[in-house]
Design a protein that fits this description.
Layout: H1 3-26, H2 39-42, H3 48-51, H4 78-90, H5 94-100, H6 103-112, E1 121-128, E2 131-137, E3 143-149, E4 159-165, H7 173-186, H8 189-195, H9 198-203, E5 217-218, E6 223-230, E7 233-240, E8 250-254
Length: about 260
């Protein structure tokens, strides 16, 4: 056997194997050309929204946030504060209403107002020591009054009291005139008109102070004459008895005159 010839053949075979292997190694590891598993094969569910990167749908049964109020601001004047309270109620902003009122006032407003005409117009604020009483009127001549505590202005819960004075139509003649006089003293012209007429309201001037109501006279024909004494004079209201218990029962007003002195 020729050892030199055999060695040459072995060396040639090694060189040939190296020549085939080197180009493959230089190009890096061979790529995996297998198709990756699809959703059904991998067990993962996908949809169009997920493919686009959209936010996932809420989990079934999870609470959905409701509408929220804007962060309330706390006015620094009684008038502005009272208007904010009424606006929060009429605009259905319960969180804001709760932040502007005490819990008791909040509950009372929600109990009072649903049965009232809720188109409220600002009337005026009357100041007292430490508080202001701000009034609003509606188409029925009702009066809503809020007490605003001065020391809480520009802070939460400054509305510390509320009252609703509804327009009433008494069935008693004297009580009916007292209702008119009270509206006259307060300046509630809308209620005065509900109880009488524009002609009667045009005749009244300065409201009475500390009025007294003597026993009325009835002159027949369903007309009751109700007298009102104040400031040294006696005025008279003519009331139609069949209209008592309803609007516009007062049909005339005769102002009193000071007695003539020599």
């Amino acid at each position: 056997m020729n050892i030199a010839s055999t060695s040459k053949r072995v060396g040639f075979s090694v060189l040939l194997a190296l020549a085939v292997a080197l180009p493959t190694a230089a190009c890096g590891p061979a790529l995996d050309t297998r198709t990756p598993p699809g959703p059904a094969e991998s067990g993962e569910a996908t949809d169009g929204a997920a493919a686009l990167g959209a936010a996932p749908e809420p989990t079934a049964g999870a609470p959905v946030p409701g509408p929220t109020d804007l962060s309330p601001t706390y006015p620094d004047t009684a008038e502005a504060y009272a208007k904010a309270v009424v606006n929060a109620w009429t605009q259905d902003q319960p969180s804001t209403l709760g932040s502007l009122t005490t819990p008791a006032v909040n509950d009372e407003i929600l109990d009072l107002l649903p049965s009232a005409n809720d188109e409220w117009a600002f009337f005026r604020c009357d100041g007292t020591a430490g508080s202001s009483y701000c009034s609003f009127t509606n188409a029925d001549a009702d009066v809503l009054t809020l007490r605003i505590t001065h020391s809480l202005l520009a802070h939460a819960h400054a509305a510390t009291d509320v009252s609703l004075d509804r327009t009433e139509y008494p069935k008693d003649g004297v009580a009916y005139v007292k209702e008119f006089v009270a509206a006259w003293q307060f300046g509630n012209t809308a209620r005065m008109l509900k109880l009488s007429s524009a002609a009667v309201v045009a005749k009244v001037k300065a409201p009475p102070v500390s009025p007294i109501y003597p026993t009325p006279d009835c002159c027949g024909g369903g007309l009751l004459q109700v007298k009102v004494k104040y400031s040294g004079v006696t005025a008279r209201f003519d009331v139609v008895t069949i209209k008592l218990g309803g609007p516009n029962a007062i049909i005339d007003f005769v102002p009193g005159q000071l007695p003539i002195t020599s």
